[in-house]
Specification:
Elements lengths: L1 H10 L5 H21 L9 H4 L1 E9 L10 H17 L6 E5 L3 E7 L4 H8 L5 E11 L38 E3 L5 E3 L8 H4 L1 H4 L31 H12 L5 H8 L8 E7 L2 E7 L4 E2 L3 E9 L4 E8 L1 H14 L9 E5 L2 E4 L10 E8 L1 H12 L6 E10 L2 H29 L2 H27 L5 H30 L4 H33 L3 H31 L3 H4 L9 H4 L5 H10 L8
Antiparallel strand pairs: 1-3, 1-15, 2-3, 4-8, 4-9, 4-12, 5-6, 7-8, 10-11, 11-14, 12-13
Helix pairs in contact: 2-13, 2-16, 12-13, 12-14, 13-14, 13-16, 14-15, 14-16, 15-16
Length: 603
């Protein structure tokens, strides 16, 4: 009868528990070493523990829109802002609505808060507009003068490929290339060309540049030979006056010049390159930012610099090919298109061929500025315009007090659990305490490594989740110990009692932990903000409970059962057969039952 039991122990891999213990100890050493090698020896803290910045954004309707501030658009804006901030590696950033027209963004300390502040409220209105005129950033001496003379025969500054305010402060020469590899070089030419005298007609929305004039005799303003007389349209004259008077070195003028401009209207804008401002007279938008399918920052091995690659969707590809095809037949500067991001000219490359479904923005980008621009383009435009209502610095004083109180409560709870284990389970409590220590080491190191790894930050609810996990882990030990005690009460010795009690305890532990993990997963998916920290920590510690019980507690119990203290049933081991009220050994009762029929006296 004993041989089959022994065979089953071997088949289950229990005859060599040292392997499991070695595996988990190696994992603990590796995680601890990785923690020290990474330079992060403490978990990353959330805004309630470390402090940070709280930004309140107020939503406004776009020009010409009514009732755009609605729950659908607000929820969409929350999702986009959340993805933008997380795209910068800012963890534990809470983005949520407050009231009907406010969004609150909490950014914890220790992250790039300056970048995050630029990203959260940026509307990311991206347009591709044809360039009609380029001049230096300073205002003309005579604002009423024809803007075509503003160049004075001198070459104007080249436009920027990285707006100082919106593209991370990078200044770069313009440039794009199509997916086929054809390159369109950037650069602005003097603006006293015949095209400059054709501007009044070109400013109309339906006057897309074409290489020749129609046969009807109507002047085509984009043709080199077209030199119509200036228009007396008051709107056109007003815009040309704004272009002449615009001072790009004045931030308030830059903002005012593009405020409230529709995509279908011509406009003026500014761009910066190498510390020099240039101003642009731009036609109606031909391609919009929503037509950009994706954007990413990559290191171009040929140029040895960072670039931003853009890919258009089907609609954007058709529009982009059409406008670049027309612009490539023009003379400078009307062969340029401006990439306008939130009213700033990010890049204004010239075109000498038709570009297709993808393009590259290149220049003097750094890795940081290229990724920032790609992040804004990738995550799309906000459906509403936001401005910062309030910006508040959050101190960690209150959170520190709450953390201290929470840790005290957790310490008291842990002490009570250990006291209960010692009083009730005696020697078995040493196994439980060692298992709790192993679980604590794994939890701490993993949480610390997850900070720089995925941006996990420890907040107060997460601490609560870790404290709750102490009870879950202790419950697993109690289930296992009670199964072993039940087997000892049935008259078995400790070694077979451990092997027979483990399968029953294992099922109970797995079911219990599965329910806890399922609750944590559902809570993580249906909630936002700090509650997700609680759910994440609860789920993580539940998984670690399974790992510790299977790879540490059970193998350690198997090894100690072979010793005299536990295997011999010492009164302080917690497995004393007399104290547990054990029955007589099962082997003796079976032997008597087997030998009874052949007793010669009864025969």
């Amino acid at each position: 009868m004993a041989a089959p039991n022994k065979g089953r122990g071997r088949s289950g891999g229990q005859s060599k528990p040292g392997r499991s213990l070695a595996l988990i100890l190696v994992a603990m050493v590796a995680l601890t070493g990785g923690m020290f090698l990474s330079g992060h020896t403490t978990p990353r803290l959330g805004i309630d523990l470390a402090g940070g910045t709280s930004i309140t954004l107020k939503a406004q309707n776009e020009p010409g829109q009514k009732n755009a501030v609605n729950p659908t658009n607000m929820n969409t804006a929350v999702d986009i802002i959340n993805r933008r901030v997380n795209g910068l590696g800012v963890s534990e950033a809470e983005v949520q609505t407050e009231g009907s027209d406010h969004i609150v963004v909490n950014i914890p300390k220790g992250t790039n808060q300056k970048q995050a502040r630029e990203q959260v409220g940026t509307t990311a209105q991206l347009y591709f507009r044809p360039v009609l005129q380029v001049a230096g950033g300073a205002p003309a001496a005579d604002p009423s003068a024809d803007p075509s003379a503003s160049g004075s025969g001198s070459k104007s500054p080249a436009p920027s490929a990285g707006s100082g305010d919106k593209a991370g402060g990078s200044s770069a020469s313009p440039g794009t290339s199509s997916s086929a590899g054809s390159t369109a070089s950037g650069g602005a030419e003097p603006s006293n060309s015949p095209q400059g005298r054709a501007l009044p007609q070109a400013l109309k929305a339906d006057a897309t540049p074409t290489p020749s004039a129609p046969a009807s005799g109507k002047a085509d303003p984009s043709s080199p030979a077209a030199t119509p007389a200036p228009s007396s349209d008051p709107a056109t004259e007003k815009l040309m006056g704004q272009f002449s008077a615009l001072d790009c070195t004045n931030q308030s003028q830059r903002v005012k010049a593009t405020k409230g401009v529709k995509s279908s209207d011509p406009t003026v804008a500014c761009g910066k390159e190498g510390g020099q401002w240039a101003k642009y007279l731009l036609g109606p938008a031909e391609v919009e930012g929503k037509n950009v399918k994706s954007a990413k920052a990559v290191l171009d091995p040929n140029r040895g610099s960072w670039i931003v690659q853009m890919e258009f969707n089907k609609t954007g590809s058709n529009k982009f090919a059409a406008i670049t095809g027309k612009l490539s037949k023009q003379q400078p500067p009307m062969n340029q298109f401006a990439i306008v991001l939130d009213g700033d000219v990010v890049s204004a490359p010239s075109v000498n061929t038709t570009l297709n479904s993808s393009a590259e923005i290149y220049g003097s980008f750094t890795q940081e500025s290229s990724k920032e621009l790609a992040n804004v383009l990738s995550y799309g435009a906000l459906p509403l315009t936001f401005h910062e209502d309030t910006v508040t610095t959050v101190t960690a004083a209150l959170g520190g007090e709450q953390l201290k109180a929470g840790l005290i409560a957790g310490g008291v709870g842990l002490a009570l659990v250990i006291l209960y284990l010692v009083v009730y389970y005696r020697g078995l409590s040493l196994i439980a305490i060692a298992s709790l220590v192993a679980s604590g080491v794994l939890t701490y190191t993993i949480m610390t490594l997850l900070g720089p790894g995925i941006g996990f930050a420890l907040n107060l609810p997460a601490v609560c989740g870790a404290i709750v996990a102490i009870g879950i882990t202790a419950d697993s030990f109690i289930v296992f110990f009670e199964r072993i005690r039940d087997e000892v009460r049935e008259g078995r010795t400790l070694r077979p009692a451990v092997e027979r009690g483990w399968p029953r305890a294992r099922r109970t532990i797995l079911v219990s932990d599965f329910v806890s993990f399922l609750a944590a997963a559902v809570l993580f998916l249906v909630t936002v903000g700090k509650v997700q920290g609680f759910a994440f920590t609860l789920g993580l510690t539940t998984l670690l409970d399974v790992v510790v019980v299977f790879l540490f507690t059970k193998p350690l119990m198997t090894i100690l059962a072979r010793g005299k203290f536990f295997g011999g049933g010492h009164k302080w081991s917690g497995l004393d057969p007399k104290r547990l009220g054990a029955k007589p050994p099962l082997r003796r009762s079976r032997a008597s039952r087997v030998s009874a029929p052949v007793d010669p006296k009864e025969a």
